[in-house]
Amino acid sequence: MLTVNESIRVPPVLLAPIAGYTDLPFRLTVRQAGHTGLTYTELINSRGVLERGPSSLDVAQTSPDDVPLGIQLYGNDERWLVDAARWAQDHGATLVDINMGCPADKIAKTNAGAMHLRDPQRTTRLAQRVVEAVTIPVTAKLRLGWARSELTAACLARRLEDVGIRLITIHGRTASQRFKGHVDLDAMAEVVGAVTNIPVVGNGDIADVDDARHMVQHTGCAGVMIGRAAVKRPWLLRQVQAWFDNQPIPDEPTVLEKINLVRYHFDRMVQFRNARYAMTIMRGRIANYGSSIGHIKPIKERIRLMQHPDELHAALDDLERIVDPGWNTVPIGTYGPLGEVQHLQQQPGPITQP
Fold it and tell me: Domain range holding 280?
């Protein structure tokens, strides 16, 4: 368990804040897949949420089942960031996280996100004001630095610990790398070694349990934060947690279990947003789920073209009818070139024709 403060301890596997992905329905889906730990909202504009901007409030939406929860804020104005932290506390956040690593141009041009890495002294003062404004823990997510010539994360992490930041997440790339190349585990280890009494969580390039194990063993980080891989495989967090707990790694879910998870995610989007939003998101997201479900091109195409929520469930109903209960993926050859189900003898298990 990660000790965030005297009263808050969380499992060492965290769901990353991912812009465009980690809304409330997806966070609940990850929990449905077995995750019991901390999840984060997408990064939220501190001024936007205080001015009640619809997009900011949508990103900040939560529910009683969405705990423990970190609300991640970005901004460069002390007034807005401090008041937004108070807002997050009042709206049920377990902790508030300051984004100090987002490399996106629209964030950096406001001197927020990864730009905080370029001025550790000012960033430290800003973090201190936020810490002093709330009673819940304040954490920070960093990258290694702005560029290879500016690896400021270790120095900044030490300063942040001194002013009361309770947990550091370090993504193992620089801002200028964005998501190119690979994480630098040696540089991440320097950040781990720079602090004394707070946990450092590693982030970046964790696609399976072995990746998490390698990062922890190489860097000494106390936990891991999983991002893009969870979009395709929400159950990965549960598998990595089992490794931390020295328990057997859970098997890959069956195809039927994956189908149920797609339905759950879709239904939560309808519940907490609306049917139009759910269809728009799932038309794009089905490719992520499909990569783990297997060879289901006709089903994915039906979902991409759906005009009514019932069409998603009808497509998944048809898929369920041909799936063997023991399959983890739908094998090649299940569907013919025109999307027709192939003859039973071509399948590796007992299948009932739809």
Answer: 255-346
Does residue 250 lie within any of the structural domains? no
Q: Which two tokens stand for residue 277?
A: 């939003």
Q: Is 221 a catalytic residue?
A: no
pLDDT at 126 over 60: yes
Residue 335 confidence class, pLDDT cut points 50, 70, 90: confident
156 and 52 together in one domain: yes
For 141, other C-beta atoms within 10 Å of its C-beta total: 26
- According to DSSP, the β-strands at 200-203 and 9-10 are unpaired
Q: Give domain status of residue 169, yes or no.
A: yes
**Which of 93, 102, 114, 201 is labelled catalytic?**
102
How do residues 168-178 score in pLDDT, each as one tens digit?
Answer: 999 999 999 98
Residue 174: name the closest of 113, 219, 122, 126 by CA: 113
The DSSP code sequence of 173-186 is: S-TTTTT-S---HH
Residues sharing a CB contact under 8 Å with residue 54, sequence separation 6 or more, in sequence order = none
